Each structure stands twice: as C-alpha cells, then as structure tokens.
C-alpha cells in the first residue's frame, strides 16, 4: 500500500507506527483528517514521499487496487 494524500494521519500512524517521527517533523497532528486537509500543498508532496520512504512503500511495490 502506498500512503496517499487522502489518508488520515491517524490511520497512517495506526498501521505504521514508524511514521510518528515524520509527522512530528512536519508538525502534523494525528487526527482523523486527510493529509491534504492538514498540510500546505507546498510540503504535501515532500511529506508523502518521506512517509512512503519510511515504510518502504512506493508505486513500484504496489499494484492497482490493492
């Protein structure tokens, strides 16, 4: 699974605890709001890229629909 902007920070952290440090780095609260609602568009891409790197996920490791 690839972390995407429509996922909530709470759900992401529940699945991947190791993302906590990344959320702290970007001052993202752990709540039930989508990342795209919580983070400025200027850093959203950076945040998602770093989160996926931490969990070892990328589009290359995932298939469409699952």
Brief rundown of the structure:
This protein has helices at residues 9-15, 20-25, 35-38, 41-55. It has one domain (9-61). The model is unreliable at 60-66 (pLDDT under 50).
Could you please describe the fold and organization of this structure?
By secondary structure, this protein is mainly alpha-helical. It has one domain (9-61). The chain contains four helices and no strands. The longest helix is centred in the C-terminal third of the chain and has 15 residues, at 41-55. The N and C termini lie close together (7 Å).
Indicate the topology.
Layout: H1 9-15, H2 20-25, H3 35-38, H4 41-55
Task: Give descriptors for this structure.
66 residues, disordered C terminus, mainly alpha
Structural class: mainly alpha
**Helix tally?**
4
Poorly predicted runs: 60-66
Distance between the termini: 7 Å
Based on the structure, what is the oligomeric state of the protein chains?
single chain
Helix amount: 40-55%
Number of domains: 1
| Counted beta strands | 0
Rg to the nearest angstrom?
A: 11 Å
CA-based shape? globular
Characterize the main sheet.
Answer: none
Mean pLDDT: 89
One letter per element, helices H and strands E, the order comes to: HHHH
State which percent range the strand residues make up. under 5%
């Amino acid at each position: 699974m690839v972390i995407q902007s429509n996922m909530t920070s709470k759900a992401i952290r529940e699945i991947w605890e190791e993302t906590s440090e990344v959320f702290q780095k970007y001052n993202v609260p752990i709540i039930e709001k989508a990342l795209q609602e919580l983070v400025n568009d200027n850093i959203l891409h950076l945040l998602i890229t770093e989160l996926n790197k931490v969990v070892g996920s990328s589009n290359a490791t995932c298939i469409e629909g699952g």
